Amino acid sequence: MMHELAVTQEILSIVLAEAESNGAKRINKVRVKVGEMTAVVGDCVCFYFDIISRGTIAEGAEVEIENIPIEARCSACGKVYRASELDFLCPFCGGIGNLISGKELLVERIEIDQLGEGSGSKDP
Amino acid sequence: MEVKILRDVLATNEAIAKENERLFGEKKIFVLNLMASPGAGKTSFILRTIEGLRDDFKMAVVEGDIVSKVDAERIREQGVPAVQINTGGACHLDANMIKNSLALLDLDEIDFLIIENVGNLVCPAEFNLGETLRVMILSVPEGDDKPLKYPLMFTESHVLIVNKIDLLNQTDFDLERFKNVVRRLNSDMKVFELSCKSGEGVEDWIDWFKTRLISFRT
Asked: All domains of chain A, ordered by start, with CATH?
């Protein structure tokens, strides 16, 4: 899908800005959290990132996607449970569930080499 | 070295959506974000809505499409201002596209704005535009299994229009089963069953929407 491109561009710009403000000369790893309820396909993000990061300090960085499961809290009995993306109703009492996680789309952290630092782990 | 970031990827879009929302609030414009698959009847639904409300309200339409101006022209033929956004390949509208399109409309002359999103049940649900109400259309020929394939659209929308009910007896679409699945995903969703072609059921939608518009503006 095309929307992963827009999402990946946003990820790249967040990552580059953070790297710059931390004096990075190179980004080795990018960790992204993706909720299972979002329509974002992790593999597409990795694929686009490889392409659009070329020529930047993020070129060649490994993109690690952590999937966040869908969790809901029942509005009737208050229990928290793992919900399926197709059914939010409470498995204990049948009450209406309110999502508490699963819609995340976050850049969590990056691993960088700073200017003046020795060669990164990826360099021989 | 590790740098913690924890930043929402859609934050930029959310920030612009908030700006749009503020502007709509200032101008007292009710904004409807309309989402559906290609061919579900978005433009016909807009034309029906124009027809039902044109005597009482001033309206405008923002048309999102990958290319072409066909839809905007059909709206303008009704004497309603329409702006066409061609996304040039992108599968959804984002808040910034809406912000830019607003410059082409006279916001003091609008009571409600309909944004016709790009035909797609997947990603438009991810991008807030600053709207007041999210309405999705599902047409009978698409089948009653759609909530199982595109759950986010069903959880993010406030109103569901089941269009083309004149075709119900020619398909195996099971309306009760469908509404049951929808309720499990989104118990607050308001559902209207109608046919933009025959006009059946359109009045219920118009009456409900009119009430919403009046309470929004007072």
From this structure: 3-69+102-114 (3.30.2320.50)
